[in-house]
Write a structure and sequence with these properties.
Number of domains: 2
CATH architecture of the largest domain: 2-Layer Sandwich
Strand order of the largest sheet: 4-9-8-7
CATH topology of the largest domain: Chloramphenicol Acetyltransferase
Number of strands: 9
Oligomer: single chain
CATH superfamily of the largest domain: Chloramphenicol acetyltransferase-like domain
Strand content: 15-25%
Order of helices and strands: HEEHHEHEHEEEHEEHH
Length: 261
């Protein structure tokens, strides 16, 4: 997530940002700023200050409220996505933009509940079910309807500990080295490895065109919340997302062209 996207996200949460004597200040509704979100603000402090200073110079708002747009129209890519798309089209990246996430799961595991949780995550985030193509040389994105992603399971529990460790590392590396075909593949793959009766490794591979380091901290938390709700036969505790990345892409192009939605 680029800084302007992060600032847009904060503003949609009701967080106000401003500069006071060259220092970054913020105000937010009660309960919005979690320790993780505060750390993200700290980590991006320099970039946020530069963005706010630029906004003061141009007298433009940092980000007008992003609005949900019709999915019936042609959907452009954000500038960050477009850069990655051109790199992929030129076959320069191989698997360089794969983003692996490995979760060590301990305790009794409900396989079907986990698979269902992953699919709810995919249904929740349009970027995880998006493919990319070109129309008259212009890159566009196509959002697929929610679908059922299969969770392959490989049992390594019968191997000796040393063999199991070696085999697991080989499998993790092999999976991470596989490239995505962004015109055909959705930018997420999953695999589950069983190490014992109550021990599993969940490997999620994402493409950077749909995620970033900040996203990798959000996904496990959402997955845990949904999985727990499924086990308890409760609806997902996560609120629906008012905007998606495609909305940001359209907003960004209008914003940088001098228009606001």
């Amino acid at each position: 997530m680029k800084t302007i996207e992060f600032v847009s996200y904060l503003q949609n949460l009701g967080v106000k940002l401003w500069i006071d004597r060259d220092r970054l200040r913020y105000r937010s509704p009660k309960g919005i700023i979690t320790p993780e979100l505060k750390q993200n603000i700290v980590d991006r402090k320099t970039e946020i200050l530069e963005l706010l200073q630029e906004a003061q110079t141009t007298q433009k708002p940092v980000a007008s409220s992003i609005k949900a747009i019709s999915r019936e129209q042609v959907l452009p890519l954000s500038y960050a996505q477009q850069r990655l798309w051109f790199i992929e089209k030129m076959a320069l990246s191989s698997n360089a933009y794969n983003m692996p996430l490995t979760l060590h799961l301990e305790g009794k595991l409900d396989y079907l509940a986990l698979e269902k949780s992953i699919n709810q995550i995919i249904a929740r985030h349009e970027t995880l079910r998006t493919t990319f193509s070109e129309i008259n040389g212009i890159p566009v994105q196509t959002i697929k309807p929610p679908f059922e992603l299969q969770l392959p399971l490989q049992d390594l529990s019968k191997l000796a500990p040393s063999e199991q460790t070696t085999k697991l590392q080989q499998l993790l590396q092999t999976e991470n080295e596989l490239s995505f075909n962004l015109e055909v593949d959705t930018p997420i793959r999953t695999r589950l490895y069983q190490l014992g009766t109550t021990e599993h490794i969940l490997q999620i591979t994402l493409h950077h065109i749909a995620s970033d380091g900040w996203s990798l901290t959000v996904l496990p938390k959402e997955l845990s919340a949904i999985y727990t709700a499924i086990l308890e036969e409760k609806p997902s505790p996560l609120p629906s997302l008012p905007i998606q990345y495609a909305d940001f892409a359209v907003w960004q192009r209008n914003y940088l062209q001098g228009e606001t939605l």
